[in-house]
């Protein structure tokens, strides 16, 4: 394997990014550099950001591990089709597709692009669910920034098709990171549409998992005092015809939230984990 480092481009860089589960654009930029260094740190390698023979080997082992099937799927079928929405655009040819929706550039040079983070979580969830035999779909399987109305139209189409096919219901999960003008704002939250609906049952399971996983973090019960135009007043929750939730996974505008969870592979794993735990509980207990 060719040695690659910051500034390089091409298919090897894409392979590194795929293995690290970060945005795959083939450009070895800041985020890739940070992710490689973190990976090297976790794997007792020299932390130099250079993907040489040893790092390649470790990345491959990691990849193989991930491909290994998780415990045999004992459920014959899942009770719901889970629709994951990764909110905002991704990164195409090194260009983030959405204006705003990013962290400040921190002193260490790192920056979090929300759409890239959202995709990293959704990609993990797709993998976890697929391995567990839980039906799921990535609503926006592209790096493009797809409008909110197209997202909800597509989700509703999937819902209707599924109903016609076998009567199975869908549950819509939109994954985001929060942002606010005041850097001190922090914590985790989940939203549903107004009123008491089936969505609230799903959201409260997720909130419970989040509180258990992140006991030292602020669990925001009502963040309507936060960003006023948050995801366009939750268009996706108002316009979807199925149980729908939207998680705001910590604040990208808060230094420690951003570094501990959003820019961190381990943090991303934990955020994906709480969503997956929610899915498992809702599936097992047929909660909605
Ligand atoms: Zn968002």
Record keyword descriptors for this entry:
288 residues; alpha/beta; Aminopeptidase; 2 domains; five-stranded mixed β-sheet; two-stranded antiparallel ribbon; 12% strand; globular; binds zinc ion
Can you walk me through this structure?
The chain is an alpha/beta fold and about 290 residues long. The protein folds into two domains: about 10-65; about 80-285, Aminopeptidase (3-Layer(aba) Sandwich). Helices cover about 45% and strands about 10% of the residues. The strands form two sheets. Strands 4-1-5-7-6 form a five-stranded mixed β-sheet, sandwiched between helices. Strands 2-3 form a two-stranded antiparallel ribbon. Helix 4 packs across helix 9 (about 265-285) and helix 6 packs across helix 9. The relative contact order is 0.14. The structure holds zinc ion. Zinc ion binds next to loops.
Helix and strand arrangement:
Elements: H1 11-20, H2 30-42, H3 53-67, E1 80-85, E2 91-92, E3 95-96, H4 114-131, E4 136-138, H5 148-166, E5 169-178, E6 189-191, H6 198-213, H7 231-239, E7 244-251, H8 255-262, H9 265-285
Parallel strand pairs: 1-4, 1-5, 5-7
Antiparallel strand pairs: 2-3, 6-7
Residues 87-88, 101, 114, 176, 231 line the site of zinc ion.
